[in-house]
Amino acid sequence: MKEFPDVIAWSIPAFLLLIVLERVSYLLHRDDDEVGYASADTATSLAMGLGSVVTDLLWKVPIAAAYALLYTLTPLRVAEVWWSWPLILLAQDFCYYWSHRGHHVVRILWAAHVVHHSSQRFNLSTALRQPWTSLTSWIFYIPMILAGVHPAVVAFAGSINLLYQFWIHTERIDTLPRWYEFVFNTPSHHRVHHASQGGYLDRNFGGILIVWDRVFGSFAAERERCVYGLTKNINTYNPLRVAFHEYVSIARDVRAAATWRERAGHLFRSPGWQPDAPPAPVTAPAAQPTPVTTP
């Protein structure tokens, strides 16, 4: 079995150090349009990150088994030579784009991903606010496995993608050179992704590259000040509620649904979907009194 270094685990000390440094920078100076840090919010993000490390170990076993089975079934093999790695990272980033986009437009997938968007602040600690129920993301990378990329290589490429995204969770960096902003995901682009106002919703799904959003029509540039969080914020720092609140809401809606079509809609339609209201009953017009005529 191939083994690669766990770049995320090795990077945790650097993550924590950079969070401390960013917070110190806010204590020294903060612009009026930056929301900065709050202790309770940061503690929740760190708790969610720690919990995701534990739960990811549990989900890793069945996912690795499924990937291994698919890898043995395909006759294709991608050679791990120097020139194949840029192509592997490109393919992984493409699959990540569709995984990320899917987790915004399918409610049962959003139930996991909403955790990452639940903070009303945007700083490096927000990057660590990760879900505990990442059960379906692996499905989007099956094409890479079937194309002959070794499962361990897919996992390592995913770690590189996740590592890149840590530094773009900040308000401390404005915009970068135009050529970089055009090709790569940046703090400016990712601030838009975490914003909750209408023109910014469901935009900028890229991981390392922003070109997928430009190609597939989901790109939005940062124009106005971003308001972070959800369209309906949950206003809690309880990690259990943060992790599972959307599943509870889905269960409530499914239980109250009148038909199986509505139940499926609450699971697989967009997070804001609601069934059409039943038509108002048609009432017959009141009978008009018969005019009385005199002889």
TrEMBL record:
Low complexity bias locations: 283-295
Subcellular location: Endomembrane system
Protein's UniProt keywords contain Transmembrane: yes
One GO CC annotation: endomembrane system
Membrane topology annotation: Multi-pass membrane protein
Location of the Fatty acid hydroxylase domain: 86-218
Region ranges (Disordered): 271-295
GO molecular function: glyceryl-ether monooxygenase activity; iron ion binding
GO biological-process terms attached to the record: lipid biosynthetic process; membrane lipid metabolic process
Pfam families per the UniProt record, alphabetical: FA_hydroxylase
Residues annotated as transmembrane: 7-26, 46-70, 138-164
Keywords linked to the UniProt accession: Lipid metabolism, Membrane, Oxidoreductase, Transmembrane, Transmembrane helix
Protein name per UniProt: C-5 sterol desaturase
